[in-house]
Structures are given as structure tokens and as C-alpha cells.
Design goal:
The chain has 171 residues and is α+β, with helices and mostly antiparallel strands. The protein has one domain: Orthogonal Bundle (Arc Repressor Mutant, subunit A). Helix content is 57%, strand content 15%. The chain is built from 6 helices and 5 strands. The strands form 2 sheets. Strands 3-5-4 form a 3-stranded antiparallel sheet. The protein has a two-stranded antiparallel ribbon with strand order 1-2. A hairpin with a 7-residue loop joins β4 and β5. The radius of gyration is 20 Å and the shape is globular.
């Protein structure tokens, strides 16, 4: 059993505990995530496709209106690599996978826009990425496992996004 001290909004100390089971589950979650990502990265490299960090940026731009996002918005959309995003954008621009566009509304602002080459690279990587998702994530689990995980992760995402919302049993 692990104890942690937290402070509430008024500054009062609250002692919480993290059980062995909670800690073990957390460790399994982050270890499985890291191992699956590593395996997919290896598959992409073996097939000479863009790495996941690049794919993450390309898919965010592909799904955006007009296939472009302000750099600050891009930072909010990417999942795998928030640190070093500026350097990654610089590299992707040099590789002609994206281009920077000046903002017409705000002269200081800039957009990252998906190029045709970027879309092609993303589309070539997808089959390898999808195969990795299936092989390393979905196949070892039952349909019920996936549904349970989906439900649990949905709850966690809501709890992180809306920490002060009280869930009703019907939510």
C-alpha cells in the first residue's frame, strides 16, 4: 500500500492510498502501451514507412479542416510527441511532408499544412500501422476485453478532461 498526500482546494491535506493492485494495473497499462508502440515503430521502420510521431502529425493535419492547423492547435492534437514538436515540424517541412503557411488573420501566427507528399506518406504507413494495432493490441484480447477496455478508457478520458464533473450512474 502506498500513501500520498494531496491538498484540497482550501489547502487541507488529504491522505490517499494507492493500492498494490492499482499500482500494478497502472504499470501494466504503461508497459503494454510502450511495448505496442515500440513493436509498431519497428514494423514501420522495417517497411521503410514514416515513424509514428510523423504519422501522428500527418493524420492530425489530414483530419483538420482544409488539411491545416495552427501550430498551437497541432500541439493539442498530436498524441505521441508534444515535446520537440517544433523540431519535428521543421523536419517534416524539409522533407516536404508539410508546409508552413502564414496566417492571414494574425501575421505572427502560422499554420502547418499537409502536402500531397505528406498525405501519400500517411496513406502508405496506414496498412502497417493498422496491422500492428490488430496484431499487438486487438488479437490477444477477446471482444469483451476490448469493450471493457474501451469503457474504462472512456471513463478515464472524461475524468481527465472534466475533473470536476460528477458522473451520474446513467452517464
Amino acid at each position: 500500500m502506498y500513501y500520498i498526500e494531496l491538498k484540497d482546494k482550501e489547502g487541507a491535506v488529504i491522505v490517499e492510498r494507492v493500492s498494490e493492485h492499482e499500482l500494478s494495473t497502472w504499470r501494466h497499462f504503461i508497459k503494454a502501451h510502450a511495448q505496442i508502440i515500440e513493436k509498431i515503430e519497428q514494423d514501420l521502420a522495417k517497411e521503410k514507412k514514416v515513424p509514428l510521431t510523423t504519422y501522428d502529425v500527418l493524420i492530425a493535419l489530414f483530419e483538420a479542416p482544409d488539411r491545416k492547423l495552427r501550430l498551437g492547435d497541432l500541439n493539442k492534437k498530436v498524441v505521441l510527441s508534444k515535446s520537440g514538436l517544433t523540431r519535428l515540424v521543421d523536419r517534416l517541412e524539409r522533407e516536404h511532408l508539410i508546409r508552413r503557411e502564414k496566417s492571414e488573420e494574425d501575421r505572427r501566427g502560422a499554420y502547418a499544412a499537409l502536402t500531397e507528399q505528406g498525405e501519400q506518406a500517411m496513406r502508405r504507413a496506414w496498412p502497417v500501422y493498422a496491422c500492428g494495432i490488430k496484431r499487438y493490441f486487438a488479437e490477444p484480447l477477446t471482444g469483451q476485453d476490448i469493450q471493457s477496455m474501451h469503457n474504462a478508457l472512456e471513463v478515464l478520458n472524461r475524468a481527465v478532461l472534466f475533473p470536476n464533473r460528477v458522473e451520474s450512474p446513467d452517464d
